Amino acid sequence: MSATQTVVSQVMQARKSVRKYKEGITIPQEQLQTLLQQAITAPSSSNMQPWRFIVITDQEVKKELRPIANNQEQVETSSAIIAILGDMKMYQRAQEIYDANAEQGLMTREVADAMIKNSHALYGNLPEEVIKNIVHFDAGLVSMQIMLLAKEMGYDTVPMGGFDKAKFAEKFNLPKNEVPILLIAIGEAATPAYGSSRLPLEHIVRYI
């Protein structure tokens, strides 16, 4: 690592999308739990934390998931699939979230009560499409943290948006308020990932 490169920068540069995994590698549940516990420090709109997760390690279930995920090989060969879901009714947990903030001394009881009231008033009256955009955005934030943390732990990942979300919801009996957003395969790479170029900054950045 160069003197100017931080640990975070090193992990970011090292993380690549991997689609070929060593089969039969088990990631301990405790490690997956630690990974998710750290990942959910991601920011979210009004701290509503709309992400929900299904962690799939059972080989038979992964095999059944594969055709739902456009027959992508890594669904079956990776150690686990982390399904990222978005809770369209996330504001219904505002009481739980802001009560904890008050109890931990992160805000006063008065501020917490106001935030609970405002969250229900705001999110409870937003159009479904707006809520969906919010939960997708927040899911992206937590997903990136999952992938970077996984790399730091020595595992590789690949995000997959290409799957039949209606069939996934049916297969896993999702409640109506939960929408599937992304699948993340995690495991040990069987072959090195391909590198990929990026557009020059001068083509994508404007300074004003």
Overall description:
It holds the Pfam family Nitroreductase. Keywords: Oxidoreductase. Residues 14-187 form the Nitroreductase domain. This protein has a domain at 16-87 and 132-190: NADH Oxidase (3-Layer(aba) Sandwich). Helix content is 44%, strand content 14%. It has nine helices and four strands; from the N terminus they run ααβααβαααβαβα. The protein has a four-stranded antiparallel beta sheet with strand order 1-2-4-3, sandwiched between helices. α2 packs across α7. It starts with 6 loop residues before the first helix and ends with a helix.
Q: Which structural class do you get from the secondary structure elements?
A: alpha+beta
CATH class of the domain at 16-87 and 132-190: Alpha Beta
Mean pLDDT: 96
Task: Report Rg.
Answer: 19 Å
What is the helical fraction, as a range of percent?
40-55%
CATH H-level name of the domain at 16-87 and 132-190... which superfamily?
A: NADH Oxidase
**Residue share in β-strands:** 5-15%
Please, what is the oligomeric state?
single chain
Uncertain spans: none
- Topology pattern, helix = H, strand = E: HHEHHEHHHEHEH
What is CATH's topology name of the domain at 16-87 and 132-190?
A: NADH Oxidase
Q: Largest sheet at a glance?
A: 4 strands, antiparallel
**Would you report the number of β strands?**
4
CATH architecture of the domain at 16-87 and 132-190: 3-Layer(aba) Sandwich
Family: Belongs to the nitroreductase family.
Keywords: Oxidoreductase
Protein name: NAD(P)H nitroreductase
Pfam family, one: Nitroreductase
